[in-house]
């Protein structure tokens, strides 16, 4: 499995985002090559998209936009051989604030948000109920533990 991250903006966290996405897909046994678009956003940008897409007018840390409802059966791009899973919009400024607030490293927070987003791209949704939220939380923690990024 190979994961292609398309990202216009440069960030010192690019390799970490790549590693976290790969770890989440490996954990979920998504064995196909995959492509994920990563957009880095300033707080005002992600707030506007959050308000437009979700009706929540506040800054958030990450937004996910899945391409397919059933990504495990999606068709691969004939040119790349990869399945386009969708896009994630990450607000690095908010992530750094949260890392300080929660008392852990910026790397752990960026990896957490990436894993969280990838799980959304694979069809998980913690907003459906307590059981779904717990399932997603457990998976996120397991992936981060495998990456050596514990609290």
Structural notes for this entry:
It is a single chain. With 151 residues, the chain is α/β, with parallel strands linked by helices. Helix content is 46%, strand content 16%. The protein has five helices and four strands, in the order E-H-E-H-E-E-H-H-H. The protein has helices spanning 14-27, 43-54, 92-102, 106-121, 130-146, and strands at residues 3-6, 34-40, 62-66, 83-90. The protein has a four-stranded mixed beta sheet with strand order 1-2-4-3, with helices on one face. Helix 3 (92-102) packs across helix 4 (106-121) and helix 4 (106-121) crosses helix 5 (130-146).
CATH architecture: 3-Layer(aba) Sandwich
Which oligomerization state do the chains in this entry correspond to? Answer: single chain
Spatial strand sequence of the major β-sheet: 1-2-4-3
Give me the CATH superfamily.
Answer: Metalloproteases ("zincins"), catalytic domain
| Estimated structural class | alpha/beta
Largest sheet: 4 strands, mixed
Indicate the mean pLDDT.
Answer: 91
- State the helicity in percent bands: 40-55%
Short description:
The protein is an alpha/beta fold.
Topology:
Blueprint: E1 3-6, H1 14-27, E2 34-40, H2 43-54, E3 62-66, E4 83-90, H3 92-102, H4 106-121, H5 130-146
Parallel strand pairs: 1-2, 2-4
Antiparallel strand pairs: 3-4
